[in-house]
Amino acid sequence: MEATKTEEPFLRHVETDVLIPKMMREKAKELCAEKVTAFNHCCKETGFLMVFKCREQNAALKECLTVHYRDSAFFEECKQEYIKEKLEFQRTGVAAKNRSQKLPTSM
């Protein structure tokens, strides 16, 4: 099934259930950066006791991440970004993570 510009391309199960949620997790970690940093700092400071001593930071981090995971608009935003990257890859053959790197210039 060929997708036109007005309709979305078909997404495979692995894309909707694995790849887009992975993108959501990465973006949510960026949006919750302050809480991620606080939790990481607590863990480094307390070592093996982190399970007990970092409960407050862990709960705050989980709450922040969960808000984003459950947000259907956030899912849609990530899905559209994924589709854009997928179409660009199909067009150029260059993965998104490699696109930002400088191409070598001839001397």
Structural description of this entry:
- This protein is mainly alpha-helical and 107 residues long.
- It has a domain at 33-92.
- It contains six helices and no strands.
- The relative contact order is 0.13.
- The mean pLDDT is 87.
Keyword list:
107 residues; mainly alpha; 6 helices; mitochondrion; Cyt_c_biogenesis_Cmc1-like
Please write out the topology.
Blueprint: H1 13-31, H2 33-46, H3 50-53, H4 55-69, H5 72-92, H6 96-99
Helix pairs in contact: 1-4, 1-5, 2-4
Q: H/E element string?
A: HHHHHH
If you compute it from the alpha carbons, what radius of gyration comes out, rounded to the nearest whole angstrom? 19 Å
Average of pLDDT:
87
Q: What class do helices, strands and sheet pairing give?
A: mainly alpha
What would the principal axes of the Cα set say about the shape?
elongated
Please give the share of residues in helix.
over 70%
Quaternary assembly: single chain
Instruction: Say how many strands there are.
Output: 0
Output the number of helix runs: 6
Q: Would you identify the regions where 5 or more consecutive residues have pLDDT less than 50?
A: none
Largest sheet: none
Cα distance, first to last residue? Answer: 45 Å
Which percent band covers the strand fraction? Answer: under 5%
Write a compact overview of the structure shown.
The chain is 72% helix and 0% strand. With 107 residues, the protein is an all-alpha fold.
